[in-house]
Amino acid sequence: MINARNLEEAKKLLKNSERPRIVLAQDDEFNRKIAEAAKFDILLSVEKGNRKNKIRQTDSGLNHVVAKICSKNSIAIGVDLDEIRSLEPKLKAERLAKIKQNIKLCRKSGVKIAVKTKKLGKMKDFLQGMGSSTEQIKEAIVF
Q: Model's pTM, two decimal places?
């Protein structure tokens, strides 16, 4: 897993890494640039970070532009279930709302979903509860 704040450093680390190549999401600008420029498999935890919720809108870390770039470059959007389980209840609810919004956006733009968990059954239940289509669940990647 590549956790670099600098775009050039992330590209260098990607060249030397083995598959599956996983990049931990940072801010919106970094996510867009790395999705456009680098070759990797999964962009993990785009909903994470200090993203503010507005009155009528949730900033989930993924927009239609980045989703289309990920679809074009065959990059999956990743969710870390193990990390979500360890959160306190209020933060967990906020994170799940953002994930639900991202799953809906992934369905519209044709981006695959990847889930980091230890149990396959939990992944299917989670995705179904978040509003994924059955096609998305079948195509989901477990790592």
A: 0.92
- What are the tokens at 85? 């389980």
* Residue 110 Ramachandran class (φ > 0 left, ψ -120 to 50 alpha, else beta): left
Measure Cα distances from 97 to 89, 90, 93 in Å: 12, 11, 6
Rounded Cα distance, 75 and 35, in Å: 8
Domain ranges of the chain: 7-142
Low-confidence residues in the chain, pLDDT < 50 = none
The answer to whether domain 7-142 has CATH 3.20.20.140 is: yes
Q: Alpha helix locations (H) across 6-119? A: 7-16, 28-37, 64-72, 81-85, 89-109
